[in-house]
């Protein structure tokens, strides 16, 4: 079963901040791009695509999973990762809402 921290209700400020923090590293953005181009990937497949050590990619994937932006599935000896498109769309909606609330009074 694929695990995620996605929430069925609107995420609170802590969840939004954690997701923005997870997006704050260029390697994690590249990982998300690579995962988005595939249905799901193993850590090894991400490592092969990026010029990063396996341990580094694993750490970045862990952060993305903990933030709820990437789903994780244990598959025998290797783990599979996939973008949680609903969570990523939620980040976009949260940013849009924040910009509108801050800028609409101008």
From TrEMBL:
PROSITE patterns: HTH_ARSR_2. Keywords: DNA-binding, Transcription, Transcription regulation. Residues 8-103 form the HTH arsR-type domain. GO terms for molecular function: DNA binding; DNA-binding transcription factor activity. Pfam families: HTH_20. Transmembrane segments: none annotated. The keyword Transcription applies. This is ArsR family transcriptional regulator. It comes from Rhizobium loti. The lineage of its organism: Bacteria, Pseudomonadati, Pseudomonadota, Alphaproteobacteria, Hyphomicrobiales.
């Amino acid at each position: 079963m694929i695990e995620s921290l996605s929430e069925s209700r609107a995420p609170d400020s802590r969840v939004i901040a954690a997701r923005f923090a997870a997006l704050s590293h260029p390697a994690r953005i590249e990982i998300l791009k690579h995962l988005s181009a595939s249905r799901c990937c193993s850590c090894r497949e991400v490592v092969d695509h990026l010029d990063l050590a396996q341990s580094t990619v694993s750490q970045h994937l862990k952060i993305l999973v903990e933030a709820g932006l990437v789903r994780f599935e244990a598959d025998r000896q290797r783990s599979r990762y996939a973008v949680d498109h609903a969570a990523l769309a939620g980040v976009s909606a949260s940013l849009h809402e924040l910009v509108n609330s801050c800028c609409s009074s101008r």
